[in-house]
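Cast an eye over this sequence plus tokens and explain the fold to me:
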Amino acid sequence: MENDLSVLTRLELAKDWVRDAGNFLKENIAAPLEITEKTRYDDLVTNFDKEVQEQIVANILHHFPEDKIKFDSEIPHLWVLDPIDGTTNFIVQKDNFAVMLAYYEYGVGKFGLILDVMKDKLYWCDSHKAFCNQKELELKERTLAQSLLG
């Protein structure tokens, strides 16, 4: 039971951190951007990607100093973060981007969060159910052919 409480504590904190990151991005949506390329011309990163990453990583390490933020299935407590998924959309449209955060224990996913920043929709799941904000989503079984979009 203690391990479940630890995951639930992390989940509730992560929701707050992701929402704080979304609020920060909305508050700064019109601010000047510093844009650089990561690996090629269409793989962009902004000063806000870096700021959100720094904020969330600082929160994780403050609350859980033994946790790691890189992938290795041997790591007991692992966080995976994309501070702005859809950086090009963030830059050009000021819409259609998200903050994403997930938590694993020994390589097993425990929860994941995706915040649609501009629509203020927090999609999240634990190991049993999926939600949009606090409303449980109905999961429908689909065949692979019904699941792919081209």
Summary: The chain has a mean pLDDT of 90. The longest strand covers residues 108-116.
